[in-house]
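INFO  loader      accepted 1 record
INFO  loader      residues=288
INFO  predictor   begin
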Amino acid sequence: MPHSPLVPTVRRRRLGQTLKKLRNDAGMTLEDAAVAMGWKVPKLSKIENARQQIRPNEVTGLLKTYGVKDTEVFTALENLAKDAGKKGWWQTYSGVVSPAYADYISLEDDAERICEWAPLAVPGLLQTAAYARETMTATSDSRTPEEIAALAEVRQARQAVLTRPGHPLQLWVIIHEAALHTRFEVRPATMREQLRKLLDTAEMPNVTVQLMPLDSTAHPGIFGGFGLVSFPGPTPDVVLLENLSGATYVEGDGTQPFTGAVDRIRAAALSVEDSLARIAQMEEGHRK
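INFO  predictor   done
INFO  writer      dumping tokens
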């Protein structure tokens, strides 16, 4: 029976792109590198295009062939090869977590830093369970209450990356003030609790929260939200774009405009101190 084609997950694409860049940096063609490894050219081509698995020891051989000396590069890419097909805790929720969503959760799990511009809703890594349930209920007409409850659990479980031992995720979010004025009719206390969650989480040393005021100057973020995901070692950044139809990834050179946009969006937002003061004012207003 023929094997199913390998799914080119974002992990595999990151690994393949990095290996291709290192090969080009070494001035080697596909044929040069394949001959040096004792492989056929199609094998290396498929690895670089995330269509074939590569073992950690094969990664080691390629890096030596390319003249790489940095031990951190060896460690990062060997680990990425090891984890490329790894199943995570989210597989428990495979009935409700789509392959694309699972792919993103794996990126979060690998990431060193995430900078997210959120013009319409509080980012998932900072949401309360109630906020997650209410927003998913409002935006989905096909999910059952049980599925929404499960997805809310997933969103809460994702937040463990902020407190993981040794290397917690560095998270910087810029939220538009308009997103914090959403009214929840089923459970009015939802937004007050969400505002408190933002304030509490912002006290963590690895989490930074900024607010984009309603009267901000024009900035690149007016064209929509995105998340810029960065990883340890030499692997490239990935940008996530989300909408009702799902997630789209921007990779390779396409991420460069977003890197520059992040700084300009931060500059247009309130300072961290003023942002937290404004959020605290809003929370106090919900108590009256």
